[in-house]
Amino acid sequence: MNVLTVVSHPRTNSLTFAVADRFVQGLHAAGHETEVLDLHRSGFDPVLWEADEPDWSVGRKTYSLEVEKEIERMKKHDALAYIFPIWWYSMPAMLKGYIDRVWNNGYAYGTGKLHHRQVLWLGLAAASVEHFEKRDYDKMIELQLNVGIANYAGIPNSKVEILYDTLNDKQGHSEKLLTHAYDLGLHYSELSGDVTK
């Protein structure tokens, strides 16, 4: 597969970027190709302006040059991966702005659907799995990403994977998270998620 890996974090020395690096290593070890898009360093503007709010009555939509460039980038790949910290039980504003602008009406939904067959949403959470499960935050995130975004845009296979306790400083914990990220890349083609739940 040719996977577009999108990373969203303001700091390159973050665990998020270390996870992304291991994930990419796993992809390469499995024979996949990937392009890494660092949203912050790319200079991407997450703010949706008039140019990317097309007239719904027009058949062929024309977007801003920045968004057209990102749409062309997406078209070169047959699968997707998004790696990000979970803030306020959701994705960061930078990544949400990317989805808002690039997964746009006429391209990702409406008169068009994405051609990608698979997407992995890899989130990093400072809280524990018990904290997330107590109020079903994990299920809420899965529903939003798998059904509200991926399924709506026509992607049949969407999976949310959360790495918990990212601030845990116990010896070996960070390495376990990184190993898991590597395994997700290594077995990317085997991932399956039911977007109809």
Overview of the molecule:
The protein is of the alpha/beta class. Helices cover 36% and strands 17% of the residues. It contains 6 helices and 5 strands; from the N terminus they run βαβαβαβααβα. Strand 1, helix 1 (15-29) and strand 2 (33-38) form a beta-alpha-beta unit. The chain starts with a strand and ends in an 11-residue tail after the last helix. The model has no long low-confidence stretch (mean pLDDT 94).
Secondary-structure class: alpha/beta
Mean pLDDT: 94
Number of strands: 5
SSE order = EHEHEHEHHEH
Tally of individual domains: 1
Taking the sheet with the most strands, its summary is: 5 strands, parallel
3D shape: globular
Low-confidence stretches: none
User: How would you name the oligomeric state of the polypeptide chains in this document?
Assistant: single chain
Our count of helices gives: 6
Return Rg in Å.
17 Å
Remind me, CATH topology? Rossmann fold
Strand residues, percent: 15-25%
Helix content: 25-40%
- For CATH, the homologous superfamily is named as Flavodoxin domain
- Kindly report the spatial arrangement of strands forming the biggest sheet: 2-1-3-4-5
What is the end-to-end distance?
A: 25 Å
